[in-house]
Every structure is written in structure tokens, then in C-alpha cells.
Amino acid sequence: MSRRRTIFPEDRLPDAAELMARGRERARTIQVVPGPFLSATGAASEAAYKRQAVAEGRIMQHAQIGYRDLEKSCRAWAEIHASLAARGRRVDRYGICLDWVMGLPRDRRKAAPHGTGLILERPEDFSRLAGMAPVAPHFGDFIMGFPAAVENTAAALLAGATAIGNLGQYFTFRLPAWDDDVASTAATVEALGLIAAQEREVLVHSNLDDGFAALFTDLTSVLGLVLIEKHMVEDLIGAPLSHCWGHHFSDQVKRLAFHLALAEVNPTPGTMVYGNTISYAGGAGENYAALAAYLAIDIAGQQLQPTGHALNPVPVTENSRIPDIDEVIEAQLFAGRLIERNAAARPLVDPAPAEAMAADIVAGGRRFAAQVLAGLQEMGVDTANPLEMLLALRRLGAKRLEQDFGAGEPDKAAPRGRRPLVAASLAAEIAHVAATRLARVPQQARAAFAARRPRLMVATSDVHEHGKLALEAVLGELGADLIDGGVSVDPDDLAAAAIAAGAEAILVSTYNGVALDYFSALKAALAAEGSTLPVLIGGRLNQVPVGTNTSLPVDVSGELAAAGALVCGEIEGAVDALLQALAAKTR
Ligand code: B12
User: Fold this and answer.
1) Percent of the chain clearing pLDDT 90 (strictly above)
2) Does the CB atom of residue 381 touch ligand 1 within 6 A?
3) Which of 97, 336, 482, 513 could connect to 89 by a Cys-Cys bridge, CB 3.0–4.6 Å?
């Protein structure tokens, strides 16, 4: 088989030029319709507004909202703006947290398992939401990168959005029961064509952490991807590309260094720098410390090298549930005050260590990008064709891209077979979680587990993979025979794979607020094959109750246990649960 065939087994792929032309054709009738934000500010686009704020030396703020209930989301849109204005502060932009079913074609949404986010049923709903206050509407999650990319992008433009995404999600997100990545890619290329043909400047937004940044072990790979995305979106399609990043950037020097590196390679104004959400692991007080720690760096970053990124103060409740409106307001007030209080601290910041690291990130990033492009060409991928480029990157995935093209020197002991030039913080953080959890497993249980050596399949129901990685590290250390069940796996596929692989139990890590539906479907699929394999489940075990539209999902641990799941709050809980379940099976 030719090397091209290993990536593209299809005889024919959709024609990228035709798709872009179709997007351009749509732009004859679909152009940005200014809403309250553009009208009130008089800016031609959010990019222009950002450039103006940079010129004034003003640091902008971003809030993330999107409750299942549209009425509540509209209320949030108006209330957050009004509360801040009443205190003399400003929220510049809102990111809308849409539900994952929004990525599916409209007629497939009802039947798919719903998460916890907002569902905008009709194009008018986009405009209604954006009409609630003069704040820049940023439609990111589940707009682009999915089969519904064209209809969603059109609705966002008509609602006055001039920053639309989220290209990062294209690379890693899989929608439930949707395997047609060619259709998703074709729709994305057409939507990008529609954006490129807008009369106003419309930023294509890409959240790097939603994509491969959550999985790369080297920050040079992340920056290399920025360069490759720019090649695809700006050079090949002709739309301006804006980057967001931050969830996984916990190390403060690396956070500042990445900011400086990104500024060097992408002069297009950034959408927002995301909060360091993975540092939220405690209660409100502890999370406020995490919030202050990353905001201080992001403020220093904007003082040293303004990029137009709005700061994103994540409410301190976000690790336990979706934050409520008053909690979003509190976090915004906190950020506004911190920006003010830190204004005079600029001379105290010595950027030298971050600048040196930024130079390494840029140099390594350029090497990674060049190696990826050369490697793809060698495989027979047309690197001047945006559809082939997108699809090849998605299909190769983060692990292979880094293994084959990473900028670091080969090193068999390193996770991707290469020593990272500037190691991403995440691997160390997952190793820390695993070590802490492992230390809590009693000696007796360790011995029993090692002697039993159970064959276990570990999988996730959605994109959240860190719980799975930590779980695998602990169970592997304890001597389990692990089988990778995959990420974002549909329950029927997981049941079939576990039975085929001879697994003795299945461990599911789930976060998207689908725990009960997922477990029920998995149990039914196992039963249909006559299997009673034990299923352990952990992560965020909540769900929006059926028949309600509540914006705060409720805990379903009790229902899960009653339905027969082995519910695990923490990793160490899995050890005893497994030993007992397997002993009961043997009896
Ligand atoms: C990192 C993160 C992401 C990353 C994931 C990157 C990746 N590739 O893994 C990114 C940025 C991509 C992301 C995306 C989204 N996310 Co997110 N994300 C998080 C975050 C910050 C951390 C979760 C995590 O990995 N923790 C690290 C693990 C190791 O720790 P832990 O969760 O405490 O887990 C412990 C135990 O639970 C146990 N465990 C976990 N699983 C299992 C399983 C078993 C069997 C056992 C025994 C134990 C076990 O292990 C750990 C140690 O003991 C949380 C908020 C938070 N701070 O917790 C939100 C959060 C989970 N995300 C959320 C949402 C809504 C989303 C999106 C849908 C947002 C959107 N609209 O786009 C998308 C998902 C899209 C999709 N296709 O699925 C929500 C879920 C809401 C809910 N259910 O109520 C949360 C809670 C944030 C929030 N408050 O809104 N996210």
C-alpha cells in the first residue's frame, strides 16, 4: 500500500477548491450583521477593537458562558455586562459554551446524548443571545470542525460575531456516534471559505488546548502547530487566524515564554488567553490562589508584549460544576481589580528567563513545522490543499506527529521517543496525580492486585483524557494487564472491544455530563452479548435530568450505583472495587 493510502484509504476526497468556492458563493448573501457590540463600539470588527485596546494600553477581559437554558444564557449575557458596568468595569467578550450536539447536523441532534451546554435550536437564537448586551460575541465551541460547520458559522456571522472557531477542536474532538471525518472536514473548509470572503475582518479562532496542545509533550510541537495552522488558514484559505491557549499551561515561566513565542510568530490579535483550568483542584480559597497565580502572569504578558488576548478569569467553582452567573461576575471583578493593582508591578518582572525559553520554543517550533510539512509531502499528501492537510493531521494525531516529526532528539526513554526541548507541564502534573493516588493504595491491596494481574480495558466517553492517563499509570504500576479502550468511544463499540479483547473489567472515565446514559447504553450493549463484565466509572458523574432544561447538572452517582456501576470518586478506590468484583465473579 502506498504511504498516502495509509492516511487516505478513500479513492476520492472532496475537492477543496470547490468547497472554498461554495463558501465564497454563500458570502454573497451571508455577511456579518452588526449587533450591539459593533454598533456601540463603532469598531469594524473585534480585531479592530482589539488593536485599538492595545494602542490604548488596555487589558481586555473574557467571560465564558452558556447554560443549557437559553433564557438563563440571555440573562447571563445582560447581567454580567450590567453588573460590571455598574462597578466601572468592562467585560469585552463572551465565549459561548455550546453543547457538543451543536456540532451535529440539526436533524441528528435530538437523538444524540446531550452534554451540559447551550443548544441554540434556530439561527435566530444566536442573534437573540448576542443582542443582549454590547459585548463581543465569540462563537467557538462546536461551531467549526464539525459536520454542522457551515450552518453554525452562518448563524454566528448573522449574529454579529467577528471571531469564530474552534479549529483546535477539529483535531481532537469526536462527536457521539459520528465517524464521518471527511464530511466534518469538508464542512469546515467550506465554512472557512465563507469567513475568508467576509467584507469585515473575521478572526478564525483556534484554542490550542482543545486540540493537540493537551496531548503534546513538547511546547515546540504546540508552536509548530500554530505555524502549520497559519499555513492552512491564512496562506491556503485567506482568513486571519487567532489563537487561544492556557488551560494546560501551569508552569509560570513556560506560560510567559509561550505567550512571547506566540506573539513572535502570530501578529494577528489573539482571542483570549484561557484560564489555567487544570490548576483548579481545591475549594474556593485554593482556587482563588490558582486564579491569581495565572492572571498575574497573563497581566505581565500583556504589559510586556500586548497581543490583544483578553484575559479569562475562570470562576473558582468550575472544577466542581458549571459556574453560576454571580460566580462569573465575582471572577471578572477579581480580574479587573488585579489588573489595576498589578499595573505598577511591571518594573519588577524580569522577562529574561521567559525570553530565552521563548527563543527555544520558536526555533523548535519552526523545525517541527518544517518536518511535518516535509513528512506529509513525502507521504503523498498535497500540502497546498487545506482539506488534505487538515484530514492528514487529524488522522495522524498528536502522538504520531510528535513521534515522527518532533524537534527533540531521539530518546527511547522519553514518552514520544524524543527528549522534549521545552517540556509541556502536563506530563509532570499527571505523573504527580498518579504518584499521589498510588501512595494511597494499602500494601495488602497492592500485593493482592499484583498477584491477580487483572486484564482491564480503560476508555473515555469524551475528549477528557487526563483521568484515563493517571488511571493507567497507577494500574500499570500495580501490575494490571492494560488494554487501551480509546478516547471518545461510543458505548456499543467499547462493549464489543472489551469482549473481543477478553477484558475482565471495563473502566470508564467520563466528564461531559453523560455518565448515566453512557453507562446504561454500555450495560445494555454488554447484556446483548450475554456479558456481565464489571464496569467501573469515574470523572464528573453528573447529568442534566431528562425532561428538564436545568443549567446546573445534578450528581448521578446514586443512580449509577443502583444501576450496577462501580462508582469511583478517586483512582485508589478502583483497586478494592476491582479486587472485590473479580473475586465475586470467581466465586
Ligand atoms: C482539562 C479539561 C478539558 C480539556 C481536556 C483535554 C484532554 N485532552 O484531556 C479540554 C480543554 C479539551 C476540555 C474540553 C471540554 N470540556 Co473540559 N475540563 C477540563 C478540566 C479543567 C479538568 C478535567 C481533568 O482532566 N482533570 C484531571 C483529572 C486527573 O483529575 P479529576 O478530574 O479530579 O479526576 C480524578 C478522579 O475523578 C479520577 N478519575 C477520573 N476518571 C476516572 C475513572 C475511573 C474508572 C476511576 C476509578 C477514577 C477516575 O481520577 C482523578 C484522580 O483521582 C475540567 C474542570 C476541572 N478543573 O476539573 C473541565 C470540565 C470537565 N470540562 C467541561 C466541559 C463542559 C468541557 C467541554 C464540553 C466544553 C465545551 N463546550 O467545549 C469540552 C469537551 C468537549 C468534548 N468533545 O467532549 C466541564 C464538564 C461539566 C459537567 N459535566 O458538569 C468541566 C467540569 C468544566 C466546567 N465546570 O464546565 N476540557
Assistant:
1) 89
2) no
3) 336
